[in-house]
Amino acid sequence: MSEPVRFETKIAVVLREDLAAWQRVNVTAFLVSGIAGTRPEVVGEPYEDADGQTYLPMFRQPVMVFEGDKEFMRVAHERAVRRGVECAVFTQELFATGNDRDNRAAVKAVRTEELDLVGIAVYGPKNAVDKVLKGASKHP
Fold it and tell me: Count of CB atoms within 10 A of residue 69's CB?
C-alpha cells in the first residue's frame, strides 16, 4: 500500500454564505481559474480513459471550499493581502457584468477595503492559507 500524498500548498475558496446555489458554483469556477491560469505547477497531466479518449488536466490537489459571512470575507481578504498569500477575488458587481474587460473595470473602480466580496480563492503554503482561513466553516 502506498503512502498518502501530502501537499505543502493549499488551494481554498471562501464563499459568502448568502449566495444562491448557481452563484456558488459560478464564483468557485471563476476563482479557481485564476489559480490554474497562473500556477501551472498545480495542474496535473491530461487524463485518458481505457479507449484512448483524452481529457483536460485538472488540479493535482484538492480544492477546499469554505463559507463565511460578509465580515469574514473582509477579514480573510485582509489576512491574505497582509500575509502576501496569492488570491483571486469575485465581487458582487461581477454578477452584473458580461465580459472580462468589464469585470476588471468593476474591481478597479473600488478601493481594496471597500470591495463587496462574495468569494475569494487563495493559494500558497498550507500554514499560511490555514491562517487566512482561520474561523471559516467548511462549505456544507
Answer: 12
